[in-house]
């Protein structure tokens, strides 16, 4: 019971929801009634690519592609076609972009790539999950690369690692080199079934 010196406690009114966005009612609104731009849509795709290598008397060499006016050196990769295995995608994309055919020897790593594009005036956030494979060279010439890339060249493995533009692709190429070193003279091994 309240004493004469203590005021009586008032019964609190029940808290109720007064509108559909009651939790945002006190939040600041954009000035002049403008609405925030919609969040970009996210489109995802699965891709595959590879580190194609060959053994030379001087050591292991890797095939790389150049894009953006030869300002970016990258690993070949591309979108998986319906019904295609990741290994088949990797072999096809390496052949198309470098002009080099190879046999898939081992999986390396999958990396996430995020970037923004403009789709008919609307921002679209793209997400690619790229699965990389180690491919042993069998035939072809880098002069037969497709028009999608500016150039394709063989580089000594160490130089290739230094040239690769993106850290995630350098990590994949370093993993390929480690795998080749671990295999020693038996680098051919058994091919991965595509």
Short synopsis of the structure:
The protein has 194 residues and is of the alpha+beta class. Helices cover 19% and strands 39% of the residues.
Which properties best describe this structure?
194 residues, alpha+beta, Nucleoside Triphosphate Pyrophosphohydrolase, 19% helix, elongated
Structural features, described:
The protein is an alpha+beta fold and 194 residues long. The protein has a single domain (41-186), classed as Nucleoside Triphosphate Pyrophosphohydrolase (Alpha-Beta Complex), CATH 3.90.79. Helix content is 19%, strand content 39%. Strands 1, 2, 3, 4, 5, 6 and 7 form a seven-stranded mixed beta sheet that branches. A hairpin with a 2-residue loop joins β1 (41-56) and β2. It starts with 40 loop residues before the first strand and ends in an 11-residue tail after the last helix. Mean pLDDT is 84; it is low at 17-22 and 185-194.
Provide the fold topology.
Blueprint: E1 41-56, E2 59-67, E3 72-74, E4 77-79, H1 86-98, E5 100-119, E6 122-140, E7 151-156, H2 157-163, H3 167-183
Q: What are the segments in which pLDDT stays under 50 over at least 5 consecutive residues?
A: 17-22, 185-194
State Rg.
28 Å
Count all strands and give the number.
7
The outline comes out as: elongated
The pLDDT mean sits at 84
Distance between the termini: 82 Å
CATH topology: Nucleoside Triphosphate Pyrophosphohydrolase
Tally of alpha and pi helices: 3
Give the CATH architecture. Answer: Alpha-Beta Complex
Strand composition percent: 35-45%
Major β-sheet profile: 7 strands, mixed
Structural class call reads alpha+beta
| Domains, number | 1
- The portion of residues assigned to helices is 10-25%
What is the CATH C level class, in words? Alpha Beta
Name the helix and strand elements from N-terminus to C-terminus, one letter apiece: EEEEHEEEHH
CATH superfamily: Nucleoside Triphosphate Pyrophosphohydrolase
